[in-house]
Amino acid sequence: MTAPDWLTELRRLVEAATPGPWSHDLDCFDPDLSSPISACVAAAAGGMLFVAETSLTGASSDGWQAARTSQPWWDAAFIAGARDAVPRLLEIIAAADAVAKAGRAYWLAHDDVELAQLDRVGWARHVTDAAAIMSDALKHYEEARK
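RESULT FIELD:
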């Protein structure tokens, strides 16, 4: 799978998933607390999304403390955190791509001879111009997202 295909698939998964934010916590689904403690992921909109049992029971406070260092706890933390992080990472990647494309367009608009003949002041001016073009591209991208 190519990188663009992978990013498209990630966007599709983000859009199809239950809206965030998601949170994680521990629960024991047995009134007498003899069942295993479970690490859970829940959506703010309501509803349990993921449940993973630990090997610990809720009968003692030690079990609840130990459950907060168990692998299911860390998996639940990752899943809940990824729900908010992945859309942000996709936005950062898109913004970086827009900036890179603007920079490439700028440099392609100037031939090598022209760039080679620039003195330090001229070079600084052109770099500043390129940064302004990239900044404008990023602003346009952010406005288009709204």
